[in-house]
Amino acid sequence: MVWLWILAVIVLLTVLLCRTRVGAWAAFGGGDLRLDVQFGFLRVQILPAKPKKAKKPPKKKKQTPPKKEPEAGKPKLSFTLEDGKDALRTLLPPLKRALERTRRGIRVKPLRLSLALGGQEDPAASAQLYGELQAAVWTGMPLLEKLLDIRDPYIHTDVDFNAPGIMTEGEVGITLRIGTLLAAGFGMAFPALKWFLRWRKRCRTRLPSPEEIPPGSVPAAAR
Fold first, then answer.
1. Rounded to whole angstroms, how far apart are CA atoms 89 and 92?
2. pTM flag (> 0.70)
3. pLDDT tens digits, one per residue of 120-162
4. Above 70 in pLDDT, residue 216?
5. Which residues pair with 149 in a beta bridge?
6. In this structure, are residues 48 and 173 in contact, taking their beta carbons and an 8 Å threshold?
7. Other C-beta atoms within 10 Å of 100: how many?
8. Taking a C-beta distance cutoff of 8 angstroms, is the pair 48, 207 a contact?
9. If you ran DSSP here, which 8-state letter would residue 30 be given?
10. CB 149 within 8 A of CB 104
């Protein structure tokens, strides 16, 4: 009978753990970022990190021989626009199926985003990007609201032809149960692994950019 009680306690703890909510909250703008993480009723600030007490200066260590520098011209892991498009094509369908199985178990609150594109350098390109961004918001938000529990979303996009770069500010919070996280993770694990291996293979065969090649060296991929 003891093992039945042990099994019952394990099952109860597993159910309670799967129903525990975890999440994150972020606020950004003006170059500042604050990030909090939540586990149940516990909420901890991660960024900006709290200042630590001054420590005693460490003792001098014995000098170690310098590490060998990486081979000149060796291909490095890099992420390009084409890699991003491939990730969307590969991961969006399984992500949608995983979210459909969770039955809107992921809660997004708050969701307040403001993004202004800078069009000082290339007004035509900025205007085109603004149109594409507006289309993505109007197309994607109804779909997300079907898959996620998004409460009172606010997204504002604009273009400032006098600004040199992109300006963003907002506040985003997301919470979900651990059971929901595990269910979505199992649905995404295999497709994500396939895409990751394919991306690493492309990085190995991709030639480095001219800026990454020291003068007089030969790229490793061309040897």
1. 6
2. no
3. 888 888 888 888 888 888 888 888 888 889 988 999 999 888 8
4. no
5. 107
6. no
7. 12
8. no
9. T
10. yes
**Could you tell me which of 118, 117, 149 has the C-alpha nearest to residue 134?**
117
Query: How much is the pLDDT for 44?
Result: 92
What are the residues whose beta carbons fall under 8 Å from the beta carbon of 56, sequence distance 6 or more? none
With a cut of 90, say whether residue 113 has pLDDT above it. Answer: yes
Cα separations in angstroms, 100 against 95, 97, 200 = 9, 5, 30
Q: Is the pLDDT at 214 greater than 70, yes or no?
A: no
**Tokens 């590490």, located at residue:** 67
Backbone phi, psi, residue 162, to 5°: -100, -5
CA atoms within 13 A on the CB side of 42: 4
The first and second tokens of residue 100, run together, are 């459909």
Among positive and negative, which fits the CA dihedral 55, 57, 62, 68? positive
d(CA 14, CA 107): 22
Percent of the chain with pLDDT over 70: 78
What pLDDT, in 10s, does the model give residues 63-85? 665 555 545 455 566 667 677 77
Contacts of residue 76, Cβ cutoff 8 Å, sequence gap at least 6: 203, 208, 212
Q: Is 73 helix (H, G, I), strand (E, B) or coil?
A: coil
The residues near 94 (Cβ < 8 Å, ≥ 6 apart) are 187, 188, 190, 191
Rounded to the nearest angstrom, the gap between the alpha carbon of residue 204 and the centroid of all alpha carbons in its chain is 23
Answer for the pair 173, 38: CB distance below 8 angstroms, yes or no: no
Please state, as a whole number, how many other Cβ atoms lie within 10 Å of the Cβ of residue 56. Answer: 5
The rounded radius of gyration (Å) of the Cα atoms in the chain is 24
- Quick count: other Cβ atoms within 10 Å of Cβ 54? 6
